[in-house]
Amino acid sequence: MDSFWIGVLASFIGSFVLVLSLFLFQKPKFKIAKKIAYLDTDQYGDDLKGSYLIKVINKSFFVSYDLNANLESLTIYHVENGSNNRSVDLKIVDRSTNYLAGKHLFKNTGKSAFLFRTTEDLSGILGASDTKLRFTLIARNGFSGLTKIFRKEFNTVSCIKNGHYGFGKNFDIN
Question: Which controlled-vocabulary keywords does the entry list (predicted)?
Fold first, then answer.
């Protein structure tokens, strides 16, 4: 009879550790660039000139899938006792991708990075007073199936830099 309760306790502890590890370690992990790249040249193609790029990198060791991005401008307007945000969705050329590889420890293969592109005039939007941009990424972990939402806000025109992102894990804009 004692071995039965030891087995039940061991099963309970094992299940608890598994669930805890899933929620702590097996959720999607992404990094969103702190700057937006602006392509002011046709060096990368005529259709890309005038585009704005936002780079994301999968920091998890597991693949991510069902990635969806949203870019919106938020205009602050004041009301009695505070302020609210008015949201306007901006067009992203390809707002989703099905698959993004996991992080590789020793190689910078570029398979864990993705560029989201828009042709909206982000400089003009950020130049207006009381306006900021919010980039939202929704991703699902390939191992656990857990979904997580990542957000990054860009508040000033200084968040935009002319050039293109470096290869792979590199966030530098050249």
Answer: Membrane, Transmembrane, Transmembrane helix
Report how far residue 31's alpha carbon sits from residue 114's, in angstroms, rounded to the nearest whole number: 11
| Ramachandran region, residue 160 (left: φ > 0; alpha: ψ -120 to 50; beta: rest) | beta
pTM: 0.87
125 Cβ contact partners less than 8 Å away, ≥ 6 residues apart: 73, 90, 131, 133
Which CATH fold topology does 27-162 show?
A: Immunoglobulin-like (2.60.40)
Q: Express each pLDDT in 68-106 by its tens digit.
A: 999 999 999 989 999 899 999 999 999 999 999 998 888
- State the DSSP H helix or E strand holding residue 18, giving kind and residue range, or none if neither: helix 2-25
**Residue type (1 letter), 139:** A
- The full 3-state SS of 83-102, as one line of letters, equals EEEEEEEECCCCCEEEEECC
